What does this fold into?
Amino acid sequence: MKKLLTLLFSLFLLGSSAFCAEKAPGQLEILCTTFPLYQFTRNIVDGIPGVTLKLMLPAAAGCPHDYTLTPQDLQKIARAEVLIINGLGMEEFLGAPITEANPNIHIIDSSSGIDSLLNYSEEEDADAEHHDAEQHENHDTHHDTDHDAEHHHTHHTDGQHHHHTGINPHLFVSPNLAARISINIGNALAAIDPAHAEDYLKNTQHYHAVLTELNQKFTQTGAQLANKKIIEPHGVFDYLARDLGLEIVAVLQPHGQEPSAARLHHIIKIIQSEKPGAIFTEPQFPDKAAKTLARETGIAVVEIDPVASGPENTPRDYYQTVMEQNLKLIRQTLGTK
It folds into this structure.
């Protein structure tokens, strides 16, 4: 791998200075690693002259836990003045390649200073289906990072298996935390580009208000839901569940693989005992197991989009539109008091 990276650097670094030299004075190129960060930042830089915003990963890529940098990615990093990242281990592919490609780049960690982080809600025993299901029916699905940060979990996206420490990086699925992320991005950009600081801060204030209003709709709806128990595919909905006051009684695929017959039987017992209102699935994740459980138990299955990925060309309000639709589906599926 080191030899491959060295070769990639040698192929493009010779042209890096040429890329940078092409920019006119007053131009600022901002690069976002993931689709949700790109959507948030679009609203923060809207209408600001001289700012170019680009997305590093393909819009349809989803969470980049096992992503490998391409020569095109390295070229984008070489050109950019600012790189906005999720942090919290989401971009494990970054590190030395950034400093070699562009030692002067400003890195904005969008999760900086955000507290109340959660660990993955996956059941922690790797062979859960080999244990008595009764041992797990009352398992606490949310853990404070202070207690469980050393535990390792597996996260599954786009057919890959991903191994992590405990902290769950999917902050963007929560409108509440999305609002705090937008503040981090806006304040950092204002400091990096003081000539347009007022514009960044004005846009940030407006977008923060939009996301705060969206969050209020989620908390209000959450208080009215008739059934607050759900099953999720993996840890992607942990923060959203907290916003809504939902209890995650089981995780369908905590270790990445399609669940075995024994594990499905284990979850069927949980459904019979806990009587959750729905299994949440997501567009980026297989729903075969969820449909099997629906046939066996009659539980509802609802597809909730975490906005981890999306179409190439979207309006600036794409996140809000998708989350509003999510809220409508959740209300319809879980019912209200």
Summary: The longest helix spans residues 197-224. The beta strands are 28-32, 51-55, 82-85, 106-109, 153-157, 160-164, 229-232, 247-251, 278-281, 300-303. Confidence is low (pLDDT under 50) at residues 1-21, 123-165.
